[in-house]
Amino acid sequence: xxxxxxxxxxxxxxxxPLSLAQRRLWAMMESNPAGSAxxxxxxxxxxxxxxxxxxxxxxxxxADRHEILRTVFPSKDGRPHQRVLAGVTPDVTQ
Length: 94
Prior knowledge:
Number of helices: 2
Strand content: 5-15%
Structural class: alpha+beta
Low-confidence stretches: none
């Protein structure tokens, strides 16, 4: 498989349950929505001109290949589940 080959996913149920680790993360965020217990801050200082188009393309490629980066945990009737977003485009404004 080359880097340009699309990923193919099997059919999924309408509601995808959370794994145990995802359930733990969801519970942490529910108990403290403003918390950052599971966030990692990282900053880089780069020199030169930024090719925003190339950066967005590279970030979109990573997100397309790793669906966990596009997964959100909505809840229905108080029960969380996974929803994998499609077509995510990173916001590179600053």
